[in-house]
Write a structure and sequence with these properties.
By secondary structure, this protein is mainly alpha-helical. It has helices at residues 2-6, 12-24, 32-44, 49-60, and strands at 66-68, 79-81. The termini are far apart.
Length: 83
Amino acid sequence: MWVLETSYEYNKNEIISALKHLLQMELSIIDEPAVRLALNLYSANSLDFADALIAFINKTHGAEFTATFDKKAAKTSNYKIIN
């Protein structure tokens, strides 16, 4: 996502569209359910896609939440801020 944003200057809607297109292709995606959930969270919030994906992978492995210093990420229920 970072490369699409910085190098190719894709906006959020273009990135969401590209991700949806990738998910429709016959690709092997590790933890595809987490990728889909992360895409939904990314689409609905100001959270970065990578942060959303990390949170759902952690949740899949039993974490109640993901600790973060990122105030933007902490605005979602998947993260708790570390002070």
